[in-house]
Every structure is written in structure tokens, then in C-alpha cells.
Design goal:
The protein is built from 18 helices and 23 strands. It is globular, with a radius of gyration of 25 Å. Strands 7, 8, 9, 10, 11, 20, 21 and 23 form an eight-stranded mixed sheet that branches. Helix 4 runs antiparallel to helix 5, helix 4 packs antiparallel against helix 9 and helix 14 packs across helix 15. Helices cover 41% and strands 19% of the residues. The model has no long low-confidence stretch (mean pLDDT 91). The chain binds zinc ion. The site of zinc ion has 5 residues, from loops.
């Protein structure tokens, strides 16, 4: 068995690793390279393998640097299924369609320029149509479900707590009478973050492939930033100003909505002031992504589920408004009342946020609040670093508004988080491959786990291939037990886990759908569903009692 690291080796983008076994070629992620011209150019390069020979893709999550080249993979000959969690499948639809559209627009723009200069025309990396074709290949599966991709390859997706749907994948591969287990971390999230569950600790692996974006740093505490945000909102609006928050459409925006919902719920002392402040989410993509979040409440963490069970929709509150049309967006700049505007893109490189900055940067009553990492060379970075003026839409705008940079909002585990995740393996993996990070981050992290955990880390810095040993199955009795060799037991477990997930889905998602102003037809549908469920669960109750009785009899007999 071999593993070839084809992307996210020199930096943090383009995640793509090829697993070659005796009979199969399986791709882990197929991400786009991002961050400047040199990285962009890599996307047009041939793949490090023949796309038509890849049997299937296992996708860790819906961020473009992990999924953005999937439509291209298909364009170049791949025809197999793409496995991911169902929440990732829902988000993928938003992300890939948007990405296809952007590639088309970019090519259009370049070709207009090419016309004028007489240069050759360019072809988009892929189009919206290519993206839509690719979405048809997506096979959503549930978390914790053991799925047989082929008779020799089984996988389980575990929550990675990074964005909605993100997964840590356990992969069991059998080659003749030997086998090995590989764990692919994908991107790992921070523990104790809102909405999402903590990254799952995996106990066993022969080989680990893990990210190390923050392998050399720890994040400041997030709680102080949340308090700060409330303070900034109250102070800014009191002096008649607006609060503008550039935010990533997927993930960060929903986290902000969750925190604002809490402000309104948990701060009665400032309720009268908050009641006068409207919060606008002005990004069509963020709006769609929020709908996807609401649809997937069954994968939220317990805190968020408890909100739902208490009857509160954690991703909604009275003063929240979503603006879709351009006209609605523009009217926000006419409206003089103090407000909060959350808009994309997070680094201010594109999107509606640039209009809001143009209209708000010059006025010293306003505040601009950054809640995410600002890449080098971006407008966001210039503002955070104290630029006195910036150019927007060809106009020089003075920066008079207060600029705040709230740290601690991060979708990525920091050094402590990565360390405790890899320390969770009870059986020491033979090797830990470290990808997805700047060289310094990866090296620092490798040194740390080598010294403290006596692991054998390998830092990837470019395309490279490694042989992976397989082990005698007899040495893996426990692993075998874990993977449930008996096909019947396995199937039964799978069925039960599917029912469990489906029930959770119905419970949390219908509760969310109910809200306060429920339409009559929806009420009827949910009521029917509830009655049907009630009947079935009453019957189930008696089945469970029967099972218990049987068990007691058996124990008595012994
Ligand atoms: Zn990610």
C-alpha cells in the first residue's frame, strides 16, 4: 500500500492525497490551491495521478481548499462516487456552485482584457455546469456509520468540529490477509466552540495523516473577544455609528449569529438598547449557508441542541435580517439608524463588504470589527495594520472608523488542540504524516510530538510518496473486534445507527422548523409526523420491555 501526498504539502491549500492499495486507488480530498498567482497557477497543472484510475473520493469537508478541484477531476476523467457526510454534501452544493460561477466570471474578465491586448483567450478551470455535474456524484453518509466502500476498504466518518459536516476519517484497508488502519484528520476544530461538537478522539491507527495549520501557536481565549464584541456594538451604536463585520460566509457568520442570539437572550441589562439595533447578514452565500446549518441541527453540539429543545432557534432572533437582493443591500447604506452589518468576504477582497467599507470607513462614529485571520496582501490586512486610507472602486477613502481585531475566533485547533488530539491514540501509530501548515508550524509540531509522545512524525514539504506496511490480521484481534467481522452484526449496527440519526434529524430539525409563526400546512405536516412517530415509539417501548425480559430470564437460568 502507498500514500502519495499531492497537495497541502507546501502550504495550507490544495489538500489532496492518493491512497493506492493492491486493488484500489482512493483519493482523500481534492482541494484548490489558493492565495496568490503562483498558487492559482498550480490548479491548472496536471494531477499527480490519472483521474480516470481513481475509484472514489473521500472528502473531509466543504472548504474550497479541500473540495475545489473536484469538478476539474471529473472534467479530466474521474467518474466515481464522492463520499462525505450529509452536512458536507449540503454545503458542497453551495460552495462548488459558487466556485464554478467565480471561475466563469474570472475567465470572462480575463478574456475581455485578452481581446483588447490581442492575447490568447483562457478557459475557466471549470464552470457552474461542471460543478453541477460533479454534485451528482456525491454520496452522503452519516457520521459514525461503518461503510464498506469495497470488500477491502471500510470507512467511518467522525466529527472533526472544524466546520459543519467536517470529518476525521478512519480507513481500514485489507490486502490479501493483511491489513492496516489509516486515520485522516482533515481539518481539526477547536474544542468548546459554539454550535459544533468537539473533534472526536480516535484511539487506534497504524498511520495518521494530520493537519498542523497552528502547529506552533496557541489561540487567545475566545470568551474575552465575545465580551468585547458586545461592548463595541453598544458603544458604537450609542454614538450613532454602524458596526461592520467582514466575515466568512460559511461557519464564522453562523457563529456570529449564535453569539448575537445569546446577547439578546442573556443580557437583560442592556435589552432596551439592543432591541433598537438591527443585525443584518448581507451576503447571499451566508444566507444560504445559514439555511444549510438550520437543516442539519442533528449534528450540533449539546449546548446548541438544548437551546432548540427549550424552543429557541439558536440561529435566529427577532432583530436579525437577511438581505438577498442588491437593492436590499444598497438600501442598508441609505438607512441612517445605527446597526450591525455582517458581510462577506472575510478578508474584504470581494463581495458586498467592499461597498459597506466604502460607505462606512470614512465616518469616525463607525467601527469595523475583524473576527478572522487576514491574509498577507489583503485589504483586511491593510486595515488591521493601520492603513490611513484605502482605495475602493477607484476612490480613495479615508480610514476614520475604529478598527478592531478580535482574536480567538478560529475554526482550526491550535497547538494544544492538535497535541491533545494526537495524544489520544492509545496504540502508538507507526507514523504520523504532517501536512497542511507552513513549514515552521509543521516542524515545530513534529518536534513536540516526537519529544513528548515519542511518535515518529514525517513533515511533508512537497509532493512525496511513501510505502505503508500492512500487518498480520492476527495481531489485530482487537481492531477486528472494533470493525465487527460478523456481517450480520455489522448490518444490524448500521441499521440502528441510521434509525438513530434519522430520529435525531426529525427531532431537532422539526423543532427548529416550528418557530413561532408556523404556517398551517407545515403545522399539519409536522403534526402528522409526530403522531406517526408516537405510534411507532409506543410499539417500540413494548419491544424493548420484551428484550429486557428475555435477558433477565437468561441471567436467572445461569
Ligand atoms: Zn477547512
Amino acid at each position: 500500500m502507498k500514500i502519495k501526498f499531492c497537495g497541502a504539502t507546501g502550504g495550507v491549500t490544495g489538500s489532496c492525497h492518493l491512497l493506492t492499495t493492491l486493488n484500489h486507488q482512493i483519493l482523500l480530498d481534492c482541494g484548490q490551491f489558493q492565495g496568490g498567482k503562483a498558487q492559482d497557477a498550480l490548479n491548472y497543472e496536471p494531477f499527480q495521478f490519472e483521474p480516470s484510475e481513481v475509484e472514489c473520493v473521500i472528502l473531509s469537508h466543504a472548504h474550497i481548499d479541500h473540495c475545489g478541484r473536484l469538478p476539474l477531476l471529473m472534467k479530466r476523467g474521474f467518474t466515481g462516487p464522492i463520499y462525505c457526510t450529509s452536512a458536507t454534501a449540503d454545503l458542497l452544493e453551495v460552495m462548488l456552485r459558487d466556485s464554478g460561477y467565480i471561475h466563469e466570471k474570472e475567465a470572462e474578465w480575463k478574456n475581455k482584457k485578452a481581446d483588447r491586448t490581442g492575447r490568447a483567450k483562457v478557459e475557466p478551470l471549470y464552470t457552474l455546469k461542471d460543478a453541477e455535474k460533479c454534485l451528482l456524484q456525491v454520496k452522503p453518509i452519516l457520521y459514525d456509520q461503518l461503510v464498506e466502500l469495497t470488500p477491502n476498504v471500510k470507512i467511518v466518518f467522525n466529527d472533526a468540529g472544524h466546520i459543519l459536516g467536517s470529518a476525521i476519517t478512519e480507513i481500514w484497508v485489507k490486502e490479501e490477509d493483511k491489513e492496516a488502519k489509516i486515520v485522516f484528520s482533515g481539518d481539526l476544530g477547536m474544542t468548546e466552540r459554539p454550535i459544533l461538537r468537539d473533534p472526536t478522539i480516535i484511539k487506534k491507527a497504524d498511520y495518521v495523516i494530520m493537519e498542523a495549520t497552528y502547529g506552533s501557536r496557541n489561540h487567545p481565549k475566545n470568551s474575552a473577544s465575545i465580551e468585547n464584541l458586545l461592548k463595541i456594538v453598544l458603544e458604537t451604536t450609542k454614538r450613532g455609528g454602524n458596526v461592520i463585520i467582514p466575515s466568512f460566509a460559511v461557519g464564522r457568520t453562523q457563529e456570529l449569529i449564535f453569539e448575537f442570539n445569546k446577547f439578546y437572550e442573556e443580557h437583560p441589562e442592556v435589552k432596551s438598547q439592543l432591541d433598537k439595533i438591527m443585525v443584518y447578514v448581507d451576503s447571499p452565500m451566508a444566507t444560504t449557508a445559514t439555511e444549510v446549518f438550520r437543516k442539519n441541527a442533528q449534528v450540533f453540539d449539546d449546548e446548541t441542541k438544548n437551546y432548540i429543545l427549550k424552543g429557541d432557534n439558536p440561529l435566529d432572533f427577532q432583530n436579525l435580517r437577511f438581505t438577498r437582493s442588491t437593492a436590499e443591500s444598497q438600501s442598508l447604506n441609505m438607512d441612517k439608524s445605527p446597526k450591525v452589518i455582517i458581510s462577506a468576504s472575510g478578508m474584504c477582497e470581494a463581495g458586498r463588504i467592499r461597498h459597506h467599507l466604502k460607505h462606512n470607513l470614512w465616518d469616525s462614529r463607525n467601527s469595523i470589527v475583524f473576527v478572522g485571520y487576514q491574509g498577507e496582501g489583503t485589504l483586511g490586512r491593510m486595515l488591521v495594520e493601520g492603513a490611513k486610507e484605502v482605495t475602493l472602486f477607484g476612490e480613495v477613502i479615508a480610514v476614520n472608523a475604529e478598527i478592531h481585531n478580535l482574536e480567538g475566533f478560529s475554526g482550526h485547533a491550535d497547538q494544544n488542540g492538535l497535541f491533545s488530539w494526537v495524544a489520544g491514540f492509545q496504540q502508538k501509530p507507526s507514523k504520523v504524516f504532517i501536512v497542511h501548515g507552513e513549514t515552521e508550524s509543521k516542524e515545530t509540531f513534529a518536534k513536540l510530538i516526537k519529544e513528548k509522545l515519542e511518535l515518529d512524525p514525517i513533515v511533508l514539504t512537497g509532493v512525496a510518496e511513501y510505502d505503508l506496511d500492512t500487518y498480520d490480521v492476527k495481531n489485530f484481534e482487537e481492531a477486528q473486534l472494533e470493525a465487527a467481522t460478523d456481517a450480520e452484526i455489522q448490518n444490524l449496527r448500521q441499521t440502528i445507527s441510521t434509525i438513530h440519526s434519522d430520529l435525531e434529524k426529525i427531532l431537532y430539525n422539526t423543532d427548529l422548523a416550528m418557530g413561532n409563526n408556523l404556517k398551517a400546512d407545515k403545522l399539519v405536516r409536522i403534526n402528522n409526523l409526530a403522531q406517526e412517530l408516537k405510534k411507532t415509539t409506543l410499539n417500540l417501548g413494548s419491544v424493548v420491555t420484551e428484550l429486557d425480559k428475555g435477558e433477565k430470564k437468561e441471567t436467572n437460568a445461569q
